[in-house]
């Protein structure tokens, strides 16, 4: 599920608190956090630009996340990416488009960017992929859909005295990443919002906080015939993220038995006793072929918000296809799961 608003950790959360927050998202936007997908590897370019071109084929990924559907006008996030590996240059290039929307005023953020990665062969077993992401970002809000206290009365609605409409907030941003991997192990880190883009609709000084994420895993079981597609695997993985004062950790595993994939994740911070030691249990089911990967996951809320949010739904689809040209150089396959 993931908290994406800047509350202090001791603040009690319930359904009415969330409703209040969603009504006044514009006021709180300066403390916002980035959207977070449960199916990390089904949206690889969003996780790290090092994944751009991390396949021998052309790849298209489409993702949709509906977070807290029981809350009116809650978070909805859409993502689209396209990437390809250019063997002659030993480089990957990708395009990522992300749109996030929430609140009665349709508070939205749209990012459109290009990514580049370079594949480095350290030796026969170890590979490294640094990556760069440059993108345009825009925040928008429908002012006339907002309702303020001075516009409400017993006799009916009255005109608000709030500040008049504003223009969309536009800026540029950048992120970098590095990914190292072998046949069975992978680990990487991403640092995003290096340019600290502005996110205030008025003249206040408000910048997006830098986000740092670390991810990795181990492929415990790997079964497949020589030069044949993988038939079965069991992987354990983690994803840790820090943005400003907020942290989040995911621990889980994937089991793949062709053509089905099952995943189980625990989201929380073990050892923290202020209500953030547990957040959600994520269950995943996927269908994987050589060209198409389709996945669905559901976040079961286990925090103090249980029973108030309706969990979170997420759907992903990845399509890989080849060109007619023969490649002179092959890329070493990553052991990461596809969801």
Notes on the structure:
The chain is mostly beta strands and 339 residues long. The chain has a single domain, classed as Beta Barrel (Porin). The protein has three helices and 15 strands. It has helices spanning 15-23, 25-28, 44-47, and strands at 58-67, 75-86, 91-102, 107-118, 120-121, 127-140, 169-181, 185-192, 211-223, 232-243, 246-257, 260-267, 280-288, 292-301, 312-321. The protein has a 14-stranded antiparallel β-barrel with strand order 1-2-3-4-6-7-8-9-10-11-12-13-14-15. A hairpin with a 4-residue loop joins strand 3 and strand 4.
Layout of helices and strands:
Elements: H1 15-23, H2 25-28, H3 44-47, E1 58-67, E2 75-86, E3 91-102, E4 107-118, E5 120-121, E6 127-140, E7 169-181, E8 185-192, E9 211-223, E10 232-243, E11 246-257, E12 260-267, E13 280-288, E14 292-301, E15 312-321
Antiparallel strand pairs: 1-2, 1-15, 2-3, 3-4, 4-6, 5-6, 6-7, 7-8, 8-9, 9-10, 10-11, 11-12, 12-13, 13-14, 14-15
Could you write a compact summary of the structure shown?
By secondary structure, the protein is mainly beta.
Rg from alpha-carbon coordinates: 21 Å
Total domain units: 1
Structural class: mainly beta
By CATH, the superfamily comes out as: monomeric porin ompg
Please bin the fraction of helical residues.
under 10%
Q: Name the CATH architecture.
A: Beta Barrel
Which sheet architecture does the biggest sheet show? 14 strands, antiparallel, barrel
CATH topology: Porin
Number of helices: 3
Q: What shape does the CA trace take? A: globular
Can you write the helix and strand succession as a string? HHHEEEEEEEEEEEEEEE
Report the count of strand segments. Answer: 15
Low-confidence blocks of residues? 5-31
Mean pLDDT: 81
